[in-house]
Structures are given as C-alpha cells and as structure tokens.
TrEMBL record:
A single cellular component GO annotation: GATOR1 complex
Spans through the membrane: none
The organism's taxonomic lineage, starting at the top: Eukaryota, Metazoa, Ecdysozoa, Nematoda, Chromadorea
GO function terms (MF aspect): GTPase activator activity
Biological processes, Gene Ontology terms: cellular response to amino acid starvation; negative regulation of TORC1 signaling; positive regulation of autophagy
Species in which this protein is naturally found: Pristionchus fissidentatus
Domain of life per record: Eukaryota
InterPro entries to which the protein is assigned, alphabetical: IML1
Record protein name field: Uncharacterized protein
Length: 225
C-alpha cells in the first residue's frame, strides 16, 4: 500500500521506504513510502511477515488494580487462616547500611539521619517489594481490619503494639494471602495471614475444553485443573 492508498491512510503505519518499479526505459521510479504493520502492531514490516493470532493475551497474566476493598471477617480468619506475627530483626545492621544510603541522598540538605528515618525507608521498601510481586493495598478503615483480626492475632507481639504509638500501617493482599505491616518508634512489625492447608484428599476438578489453533480446520480436545 502506498501513501495514496485509502487503506493505508486509515490503518497503515509508515515504517520505511522502498524503491519504485522500473519503467519501460529501465529507469527506476520514484521512492515512495510504504504502509505496513505486524499482527500485533509492533513488528517492523518484512517480506516474510505473517498475520495470525496474538497469543500474548492468552499467556500473560492480567494486571490487577493496585488496591482492593476486601478483607476476611473475624470468623473466616479464625476458621481458615493461620496467623503469624513477628518483629523485624536485624535493624541495627540494616540501619547502618540505610543510613549511608539516606545520607548520600540528603547530602545537599545536610540533615542528620536518625534511626526513625531508616525505619521509614525500610517500611516503604517492604510495601514496594510486595506491590512489585502483585500484592494489592487493602483500602478499608483500619478499625474494620483491627476488629477482624483482634480474635486471631497473638498476644505476645500485639501487647507490644498496645504500649507504643503506631506511626503507619498498611494491609496488603495477594489472592488468599494477607500481610499487615506496622511502623512504630521501636521497630517494624509484620502480621501474616496464611490460609490453612487444604487436605490432600480433596478432589481436584478437571475442566475439559476444545480449542482451535491458527490455520487448523478442526478443534483439539484438552483439559485443565
């Protein structure tokens, strides 16, 4: 398709130039633009280009929103989840490394870096790492989340949280897994809500289906679990 083609004007994409055909006197015609595109709209045109199905939509996972508004109630947490709580250890050695990084970033300002600054940087890093792995931030009032987990959390770590002020907290979810990260003046606390193991005797259903590959006139039977 040339630049004067109606189809080229509507659907094509300029990707380069090709030489025109030779006339009867052997002189080469004027170079003109070519409109062409690949099956996904991203490939450069070649003589061997093939038009077919874009399989990326079948093999790439969906991008979920960064937030969600669901959290299990107290009965579900008690019945179906194991709760693990711990305080982040090794902060002293981490603080030394973080202090160097933060001081380097604040070199122009000349502000003194405290342990609280290092804790905040580490707290933000824990949140970002989970978001990079596909976690979603639970956007629910903190009172509702605290009511749901009050009957499940252990007293050992929770009693420490009652005696100190919570500076920041974030609850995240990844499928049935939930993490609660809390920042205080004394450190960082993490609560993990892990689903209880399903008995191995539970049946695993199979789902049969038929699919048709490109350039095939028939369907192929397959199944998945």
């Amino acid at each position: 398709l040339t630049e004067h083609s109606p189809l080229g004007e509507q659907h094509g994409k300029v990707i380069g130039f090709v030489g025109g055909a030779q006339d009867k006197d052997g002189e080469k015609g004027k170079r003109t633009m070519v409109w062409a595109w690949g099956s996904t709209g991203e490939e450069k045109w070649t003589a061997d280009i093939e038009i077919g199905m874009d399989w990326r939509s079948l093999i790439r996972s969906a991008l979920l929103p960064i937030t969600t508004d669901f959290f299990p109630d107290s009965n579900t947490l008690t019945r179906e989840y194991n709760v693990q709580e711990h305080q982040l250890s090794g902060l002293e050695s981490l603080n030394r490394e973080l202090r160097t990084i933060v001081e380097r970033e604040r070199a122009a300002g000349g502000c003194e870096v405290t342990d609280k600054d290092c804790h905040r940087v580490l707290y933000d890093a824990l949140i970002c790492q989970r978001l990079q792995r596909g976690f979603q931030i639970v956007l629910l009032p903190k009172e509702l989340i605290l009511t749901s987990i009050s009957a499940s959390i252990k007293k050992a770590v929770s009693s420490k949280l009652l005696s100190t002020e919570i500076k920041a907290e974030t609850t995240l979810s990844f499928s049935p897994h939930y993490h609660r990260v809390i920042l205080t003046d004394t450190g960082i606390y993490v609560t993990l809500f892990v689903p209880k193991e399903v008995p191995h005797c539970s049946p695993i259903p199979e789902y049969p289906y038929y699919f048709q590959v490109p350039d095939s006139a028939t369907y192929t039977a397959s199944k998945t679990t």
